[in-house]
Amino acid sequence: MSRWEYAPAPESTDIASVADTYGLYIGGEFVEPASGDYFKTINPATEEVLSAIPIAGEVDIDRAVGAARKAAETWSALAPADRSKFMYRIARAMQERSRELAVLESMNGGKPIRESRDIDVPLAAAHFFYYAGWADKLEYAFAGRTTKPLGVCAQIIPWNFPLLMLA
Questions:
Q1: 162 and 83 in a common domain
Q2: CA–CA dist 43, 108 (Å, integer)
Q3: Are residues 95 and 163 in the same domain?
Q4: Which of 77, 98, 115 is the last residue of a domain?
Q5: Does position 1 have pLDDT exceeding 80, yes or no?
Q6: pLDDT tens sequence across 109-167
Q7: d(C-alpha 15, C-alpha 104), whole Å
Q8: What is the pLDDT of residue 151?
Q9: Which of 90, 57, 86, 92 is nearest to 166 (CA)?
Q10: Which residue segment(s) compose the domain that 119 sits in?
Q11: Is 161 within 8 Å of 121 (Cβ atoms)?
């Protein structure tokens, strides 16, 4: 076996559950899109419908940005060590549910389970661990400079690495 080969992949889709329909996650809750429009996401391996996903429009984006700005005020008021604890917990939760996340990532994007399981999910968790480690060290890391939050940011997520891009 070459050191570059993946390990066997016995994972089954039975460990993952997908709802028939999802909402937009805005302000800590799932909400309907203002337009009421959805599209069906397809498992590329089976061509079966996985779920109906909302199509966000300008009204939804404005609501999401407003909710994110409100949340950013609360988040930035937390002590750095407390922000670190939250990020560490996210990383641990990803590790605890890594098999399920890998299966869902493969079902949604069509990539081999081995890649999702061995690369994408562990790397996403590693990103949260990494930045959790920096949260309470920023004021010491850059002598003579004061760090501050940039504010709300947006990202266009590629189809092939959604979880990793989130991290």
A1: yes
A2: 5
A3: yes
A4: 77
A5: no
A6: 998 999 999 999 999 999 999 999 999 898 888 888 888 888 898 888 877 888 988 89
A7: 9
A8: 87
A9: 90
A10: 78-167
A11: no
Tens of pLDDT, residues 39-95? 999 999 899 999 999 999 999 999 999 999 999 999 999 999 999 999 999 999 999
* Of 7, 107, 9, residue with least CA distance to 49: 107
Residues 112 and 106: their CA atoms lie apart, in Å, by 6
Exposure of 155 in the CB half-sphere (CA atoms within 13 A)? 10
70 vs 166: CA distance, rounded Å: 20
Total domain count for the chain? 2
Tokens 């504010």 found at = 151
Whether residue 160 is contained in a domain is answered as yes
